[in-house]
Sequence to fold (611 residues):
Amino acid sequence: MRYDDNVIEEVRSRNDIVEVISQYVKLTRRGATYFGLCPFHNEKTASFSVTPSKQMYYCFGCGAGGNVFTFLMQYENQTFTEALKTLADRAGVQLPQIAWSPAAGQKAAYRQKLMEIQKEAARFYYYQLRQPAGKDGLAYLYGRDLSADTIKNFGLGWSEHSGTGLYRYLHTKGYTDEQLRDSGLFSWDERRGMTDRFRDRVIFPIMDGSSRVIGFGGRVLGDGKPKYLNSPETEIFDKSRNLYGLHIARRTREDCFLLCEGYMDVIAMHQAGFTNAVASLGTALTSGHASLIRRYTKKVLLLYDSDGAGIRAARRAIPILREAGLDARVVSLTPCKDPDEFIRTNGAAAFRERLEKAGDGFMFRVRCAAEECDLNDPQGQNAFFEQCAGLLLEMEDELERNLYIEAIVREYSQFKVRAEDLRRRVNVLAMKGRTPPREPKPFEEGDQRQAKKKNSSEDKAQKLMLTWLVNNPSLFRVAEPNLSPEDFTDPLYREAATLLFSQYRQGEINPARLLNAFMDGEDQKRVAALFHATIPLEDEQQEGQAFADALIRIREASLQKRQEDVEATVDSMQALLQEKNALEELKGRRQQLAAEYVRQAAEGTRGNSYM
Fold:
């Protein structure tokens, strides 16, 4: 559901950004702006700024920025709706109730019942662990070096032997057999009726990203089968779209997730201070898992078991993660089998060292291919490079593919295979029916440098112009007669400029409210940066000259883009000629524009553009 813009703005305006961020970051006032250490990257010098007049924050170090909604979305890894509800509760704003259809309302109410059942079951299992019947489970957890606090934090429990204890408990709470059957916590047959799915097992509650219990995993003690048993998929539990430990890892300040195989691995890493660890739920990694991870980080370190099954799982996971745009790296834990064993044997400091030595995921796959082939035999060597070519063909980016070709040739130089040979093999595979990687249009080296320089100057001019207009709205009197939102060639900048010009005409410049129009996190970050562009200038005369130069540069780029895009007709050519004449006239007024900037800037409040 998308709430009304007025509701969103009411919540935002009633949550002062300085007060909210001060709950997470120590801020110190410097003039009209507050500064602190950025919570989104490691730094020793405060570059994180919060500006009350804009109701926005911006980090000059990493570029993170936005309004109070964006901050919660980034810091707490919340969705926009979650951040809106959090801030509405904080400000005492009553959000409109969702108007369900009768069928949708019944479905939502039923899902809520299933959620309640999972929560009650977690309480029951947690209580049983501390009863005489749970002594074996508690001894097992302590034997795995888990502390009482860790057991509590993960809500670990015990399912007793009778097979009806949970059923009887939930029945006294008023839940129907139909609801209990749909919860996934029970088995049913005509002879025995309803019986507990989990018995004589250590219980691991599975929570979603909002810390709500949605299912369970159970580990049997002794030689029982299966060793691990998970809840089946239900209305509220989809194991291909949830990760164990995500409810904690989503708040990590690390720049990556640690992806492993088991519950105990996750818990051991969290207890050792690595709270960014997660695990898939008894299933191979899926694209759904990768998309979920992508919401929180762009980098994944794989810590699968070092046995054959773990290696195969890592090889399957790497291309899935890469397809989702994630940097996948592999951590070697040898001679230990898994993270739990490694930490218990070697400690947290040694584990951190292994993480820092994580190897490239693609080269891991290459080395695995090498181990499968007899590299002492010419046929085995040929088969190995054939596999390498197949892996390289997965890459669409030509530069990336060439860099990995060079890396493979360098690592296996003893075979005297040249980069050209391997590149040719990739092309042969592509011609056999595999889709060839998309090739970029050829550029001469000088043309590339010129294009980059041109785009950089256009981008900088557009950013500076929007920053100036936000910091000192009186400059619209200079800009508006000579510039329109359509002159901004970047689509995102054009959208931001359209909203900003509209706000000016309505009599209120409010960049924090403007940001509400952008739902995508990356878009919010880029738009926030538009209002914090800087340029080192010494005095107002230089500022005025820079303003005039930026205005003219934007108009030049706009005209050039129209010349490239417009269909050549008599009318269009006449219109372009008029625009060109207007641009030349504007250039002739460069000094006048600079002088007008100085006059208008003196009337307005000086902003923070040149800090």
In short: Residues 5-91 form a domain with the DNA Primase; Chain A fold (CATH 3.90.580.10). Residues 305 and 338 are 5 Å apart (CA to CA).
